[in-house]
Design brief:
214 residues, 7 strands, 7 helices
């Protein structure tokens, strides 16, 4: 694990949040850095991310997920599918403390990490599931289902659409805008919006893909 220069990481995160125009408190910024510290610490054993440099983690993980936060402003109950190390779910839960955020992954060591993050950061709005999303059943369906670099759009929708509330939408975090994936979406689903994102410090394509029923 590389040494963490918390002051440097705080500076990069704070500058990025300001550039994104997000209104986050000092406490929320602190939680994001605490989450990053846990991610870097557990990564050595659990291989949660291929990114090893904490400075790159701020840009490629925290700011990349934070750039999507405005898209969730009206969401109250969100599911993050294939949550892995907790992106974007944990970041959403910190940025929107009034929002209920569930994270699901099939890999037990990843959900063990997420459970630890929930406990150490005191995230009472987070629920963690270890299961295949197509087998998950919940009492209250989700108004938004999200994923980051999880699967083909058609598989993502097909596997999890039984968990989406009436009138809800999918929001997928993608790199390049996947035209061929959009064409494979099963009926009656369609891409309602494709939104380009600018992530501070990241010179790479990022898009949000919004999927709704026709």
């Amino acid at each position: 694990m590389m040494p963490l220069d918390r002051a440097l990481l705080a500076q990069i995160l704070g500058d990025g949040v300001a550039e994104l125009g997000l209104d986050l408190s000092a406490a929320q910024l602190g939680l994001l850095l605490n989450y990053l510290t846990l991610l870097a610490k557990w990564n050595g054993v659990y291989n949660l991310t291929s990114v090893r440099n904490p400075v790159q983690m701020v840009t490629q993980h925290l700011l990349d997920s934070l750039a999507a936060v405005p898209a969730f402003v009206h969401a109250s109950n969100v599911l993050d599918v294939g949550a892995g190390g907790g992106l974007p779910g944990i970041v959403l839960a910190i940025a929107h403390p009034a929002m209920a955020v569930a994270l699901i992954d099939t890999v037990h060591k990843k959900t063990a990490f997420l459970t630890q993050v929930k406990a150490e950061l005191g995230l009472s709005n987070v629920t963690v599931y270890t299961a295949r999303v197509e087998h998950l059943q919940v009492a209250k369906k989700f108004d938004v289902i999200t994923s980051r670099a999880f699967a083909d759009l058609s598989d993502f929708v097909r596997w999890s659409s039984h968990l989406l509330a009436e009138g809800g939408q999918f929001i997928a975090l993608k790199g390049v805008a996947p035209a061929e994936e959009q064409q494979r979406l099963p009926q009656p689903w369609h891409v309602s919006e494709l939104r380009s994102l600018q992530v501070p410090g990241l010179d790479a394509e990022r898009h949000l893909v919004f999927v709704r029923k026709k």
